[in-house]
Amino acid sequence: MAKYAPDHRHLTPRCFHRRTRLKIGLLGGSFNPAHDGHLHITAAARRQLDLDEVWWLVSPQNPLKSHADMAPLDVRLSGARQIAAKYPFLRVMAPEAALPHNYTYNTVLHLKKTLPAARLVWIMGADNLAQLSQWYRYRALIRLLPIAVVNRPRYALSAIRAGQRLFKRRYRTGALRAQLRGDAAHRSGWCFIAGPTHAASATAIRQAAVANRP
Known about the structure:
By secondary structure, the chain is α/β, with parallel strands linked by helices.
């Protein structure tokens, strides 16, 4: 893999301990590897919610996934940064590498404390919402910030059912977009972003890579 040229956007110290009021979408995951599906989700959320930036939060190790075929963190960061290079609004970082736990709840709590004025929204694919109840302290997590769920092939119905079960408040995308601009940006709830889907998956990419090895 080609070495990624340094880019100040991705230097974590510049992103923390500031009182920015930017509207920031947070997309967490293993990015094992990063792919066009991540870009699709990012673009859909940014467009529908009028976000200033989107941060890809690369996890050192997802607690719900196996260590067996997980590439090293630096390799996954490098790959994600190569894809992000063309998009000035997109940052790639791994804040969990400096935290004691790899749980989304702890990561979001940390970001809210260090960026108290930012308008944060968590972004996820519909496939992840369907299994959100397996996440550590998921009920506390959904009270911390609004969540935007982007449609994924074959997961729309299960995601909507999960959202109805887990959340007290569902927003239309326009309502959440307006909320992120105003003083009620931290109010919890969720919205479903419909539209065209993207079928790319990291699992399929890894399996294809194994199958094509000589």
